Input
Amino acid sequence: MPKPRSTDVCLQVNGQAVHRRLTASASLLHVLRNDLGLNSPKFGCGLGECGACTVLVDGVPARACVIPAVEIQHRDITTSEGLGNAQHPHPVQQAFIEQQAAQCGYCLNGMVMVTVALLERHPDPSESQIRQALSCNLCRCGTHVEIVAAVQRAAQLMRAAV
Output
């Protein structure tokens, strides 16, 4: 059986250039988690349906499990680790902490990343806009009320920071 061909790839992840030799089939999720140790995007369904693997590509939510890494060279990829950290959380991360918006936490990455993108487009979203934006991210624990409250709180924090 022939060895899969690989190619040199340059990815822009959390503001840094990352060079790797990858096969054409390597998903962005695989590269982020296995090669770069960025564990916020989770493997959920592997089909791009659940949202656990969501990252931002040029500021737009994208499902990392179904994106071949070689196809997004030189584009700006942001993971939750690129937003903030425990000492200096991003306002969205802070709001999710304050509102205790996670139960098991598996969906949290996707919810946070979609919220960041939403608030960049709509700094003061209605509850309907929030629910619509998050509708493609699955939460099996049923913490939707807390998640919506966290998005509303994040909007407040971000408006106050301006």
